[in-house]
Specification:
200 residues; alpha/beta; Dna Topoisomerase Vi A Subunit, Chain: A, domain 2; 2 domains; two-stranded antiparallel sheet; 7 strands; 44% helix; binds zinc ion
């Protein structure tokens, strides 16, 4: 049913294409934008375009950043010999929020999922292995989710790294199965980190 003119409908459709935004919210947001001062709308759209244009992967850990190397990788006071492997930038943010982890990260941007046709080459795994061969690393902490995909990925990573002699550990379960790391409270995350065990 078409209630709105094309331009309005297009705006609503764009909002509705965002995750977690249903039709009602999309309409509310669209009409909110239409009531905003023109300069505000220009500023908003410029922020979207510029972020998309300038944000790229950190050349070391593959998190999103606006410089060659992200602030975490550039921070000399962090432990660069410990790498925590996470699925997403949001997972990284969840661990950073605890303020208790002082190593660095590697963001895979996904997990292996045979069901969805996502293989090892579709995530940043090769990049991790290159990093491990070039840098002096003591420990790789695999902090992928405890979903089937996360566990599959953890096992795969452990098998890849074992021959290099680098210690590979897995965060303790206690993170609910299929749980999105982002929504797990900091204490649970810290417990999972502290209770990590070596993968054999
Ligand atoms: Zn980085």
């Amino acid at each position: 049913m078409e209630y709105y003119s094309n331009e309005i409908q297009k705006l609503i459709d764009n909002f509705a294409s965002l995750p977690g935004i249903g039709r009602k919210s999309a309409q509310r947001l669209a009409f909110h934008v239409l009531n905003m001062p023109k300069e505000k709308v220009a500023e908003f759209s410029e922020a979207l375009t510029s972020a998309r244009e300038n944000i790229r992967y950190c050349s070391k850990c593959f998190t999103l950043t606006d410089s060659e190397v992200c602030p975490i990788c550039a921070n000399k006071s962090r432990d660069h010999k410990t790498i925590m492997v996470v699925e997403t930038v949001r997972d990284l943010a969840a661990y950073e929020k605890t303020g208790k982890y002082d190593g660095v990260y590697h963001v895979l941007h996904g997990a292996i999922s045979p069901m969805l046709g996502i293989g090892p080459n579709d995530i940043k795994l090769k990049e991790l292995m290159v990093r491990l061969s070039e840098e002096d690393i003591n420990e790789v902490i695999v902090a992928t989710n405890s979903s089937l995909e996360g566990e599959t990925t953890a096992m795969y990573i452990s098998k890849l790294i074992k021959p290099t002699g680098i210690k590979v550990t897995r965060i303790a379960s206690g993170v609910p199965v299929g749980g999105d790391l982002e929504y797990i409270d900091e204490i649970t995350l810290l417990r999972a980190l502290e209770g990590r065990t070596e993968l054999g």
